[in-house]
Predict the structure.
Amino acid sequence: MTSLQYLEYDITQNHNSTPVSTPVSVSVMATSDDYDVTTDDVNFRKATAADYDDVMSLRPHLYHGMDYLPSQYHHLLHTHTGFCGFIGNQMVGFILAIIIDDGETIVIRAGRVRKEHENKGIYSRLRKFCLSHFPRTVKRESFSLFSSDHKDSSILKGGILAWQRERITLTAGTATIKNIIKSVTVTNALRVVNKSLLSELFSSKSSPQLFPGDFIVVNSVPYKVRMSNISYFLTPDRVMYASYSESVKSSNSPPPVLVSVANQIRCEAGTRFNIDFYGDICVEEDVTNHIISQMARCLSECADNILMYVTYPMNRSDAILMSVLDKLRWKVKLRGYQYGIEQPVSSD
Ligand SMILES: CC(C)(COP(=O)(O)OP(=O)(O)OC[C@H]1O[C@@H](n2cnc3c(N)ncnc32)[C@H](O)[C@@H]1OP(=O)(O)O)[C@@H](O)C(=O)NCCC(=O)NCCS
């Protein structure tokens, strides 16, 4: 039997919300199905802004220095709820959770456990603790994985593969990119997709083609194509552009052939530039226009070292995309997939 202590609260409230009850103790039976049985007593609670240093101390240099959490922690706590676990006074684990899709889905992300406490079931218990606080509207848990092994084991444990996307990490020097941007002319103006245009797009006939499986995955967070989700990802730090085929441009609301959404964040390795593509990445002019326009917007505040994290739909030839990136002097560091797993949540 493992003793857990927690504060009860409403996960949908922001990080300044007050716990709705006094601390309580519960007992949770640890079984080998759930996690390795440990004699450690782990106390769980909601994380606050004041926990920043402890959270950062859990796993320094994560993801080759591309971890978004150090620069995004405070910002993310406005929309997400953080949960942390302690052994004594030491923080040993952390996760972030957000409820999206009209309250139906919980997404858990940014999970990390102190190295010396790995493989003791702390992450699993933290996740369970978090899930035990979801509102009753939540039907499913949805999360992104980046390794095929973890995808397979999640499916074996009852998850379904709801979506999959290609991902590439690239690097470049800011000075080189700035020079290239000066020398390349954007030949075809892109349209900025604001909230109202995106609402139109979501309800249009072209939506299933652009957003297969009813998902738009932004910065690895999978949102269903719902109006209520738009304000979660079309935030002031992001711009979404759309390009249209010449032949349909004259019509009133033509379907875009390519959509990109991008932002930039500071991370240990430099400036990380995230760009997610939807639609057809096979037309050189379109792909070039999107990358140049998105980068030009961000470049003024870049560190010397600049990294790009690009995602795009599966089963499309990426030869044009790769050749454009190469021409723009980006060097590929890593390639792989993003896997989207969904599983029902139960209150046990
Ligand atoms: C991933 C991590 C949080 C797991 O913490 P932990 O306390 O050792 O995990 P647990 O002992 O509770 O094991 C939980 C499950 O996590 C799974 N897991 C391990 N690494 C994982 C990863 N990168 N992504 C998703 N799941 C992972 C394990 O397979 C295990 O499942 P199993 O019991 O079916 O084998 C920890 O290894 C860590 O901090 N890694 C670095 C950060 C990271 O990769 N985070 C990804 C999750 S968002």
Remarks:
- The longest strand covers residues 160-173.
